[in-house]
Structures are given as structure tokens and as C-alpha cells.
Write a structure and sequence with these properties.
By secondary structure, the protein is an alpha+beta fold. It has one domain (12-154): Ubiquitin Conjugating Enzyme. It is built from 3 helices and 4 strands, in the order αββββαα. A 4-stranded antiparallel β-sheet has the order 1-2-3-4. A hairpin with a 2-residue loop joins β1 and β2. The longest helix has 22 residues, at 12-33. The radius of gyration is 18 Å and the shape is globular. The model is unreliable at 1-9 (pLDDT under 50).
């Protein structure tokens, strides 16, 4: 009898392993690319969990958020980059609710718009770009006054 282990290429376990391997490989590459902070953002995975990242973004210049530094988390699915991340802001900012998954075209609220070519860097830049836009009717959005947002940015 042949003692060599056989793998069924149609096995769900094998598919999960392939997706997980691809995700880990991609995330390790992104971690290397993002190891140095920029003037706009910083991001890094947790030491013990490559699928949870912490980040900071600076408020966009010439907006109510200018001067603010905002801390958040990115939770990535094991199927990343084929499926989008969850994005959670932890710092009060007047645009997005804190400690809740926010609804953006680059988040898991809109998997139909996610592109596998996008990355954590893309998500951070999109988050910065979305900050000064109106949040009418979207999940996790807030509509504070400009004065309230400027006060939060200074804090």
C-alpha cells in the first residue's frame, strides 16, 4: 500500500490552506513595504496576529481634521486580498463612529466594490480622502460640526 499522503485538489481544506498561504505571503510583503511611517499614515500588524493591523492617519490638510492624528484597526479576512478588510477607528474624530466597523467602498460593507489589487496602503489613503466627505446615511458615519471636528483634531 502506498504510504505517501494523497491530496485531493478539490478538498476544501486544501483550498483554505492555499488562500491562507497567499494571504500571509501578501501581508508579509505589505508589512515590509509599510514598515516606515509617511507624513500621512503609519500601519503595522500585531506581533502575534498578521491579520490585525493598527494604524494612524493624519487628518487631511486644509480640512476640519487638519492637525489630527487618528488611531485605528484593520481586521483582515483569511481570504485577503480576495475579500476586503474591516476598518475601525479608535480615536474620536467627528466623521466616523469609534470602535465600530465603518462603511466605505473599500471595507467589508461593500465587498462588491473591493479590488484584490488594493492594499492596506490603498485603504489608508482612501480613509484619509473620505474623512472630509459628507457621511449622510452611511453606517458608522457621524456629522459633527466643523468646530467640533477641529476641537477633536487638536486633542
Amino acid at each position: 500500500m502506498d504510504t505517501e499522503k494523497k491530496y485531493n485538489i478539490k478538498s476544501p481544506d486544501l483550498c483554505i490552506s492555499i488562500f491562507l498561504f497567499a494571504a500571509v505571503k501578501r501581508l508579509m510583503r505589505e508589512a515590509r513595504e509599510l514598515k516606515d511611517a509617511t507624513g500621512e499614515y503609519w500601519a503595522c500588524p500585531l506581533e502575534d496576529n498578521l491579520f490585525e493591523w493598527h494604524f494612524t492617519v493624519r487628518g487631511p490638510p486644509d480640512t476640519d481634521f487638519s492637525g489630527g492624528v487618528y488611531h485605528g484597526r484593520i481586521l483582515l479576512p483569511t481570504e485577503y486580498p480576495m475579500k476586503p478588510p474591516n476598518i475601525i477607528l479608535l480615536t474620536p474624530n467627528g466623521r466616523f463612529e469609534t470602535n465600530k466597523k465603518i462603511c466605505l467602498s473599500i471595507s467589508d460593507h461593500h465587498p462588491e466594490t473591493w479590488q484584490p489589487s488594493w492594499s492596506i496602503r490603498t485603504a489608508l489613503l482612501a480613509l484619509i480622502a473620505f474623512m472630509p466627505t459628507p457621511g449622510t446615511g452611511t453606517i458608522g458615519s457621524l456629522d459633527y460640526t466643523p468646530e467640533e471636528r477641529k476641537t477633536l483634531a487638536r486633542k
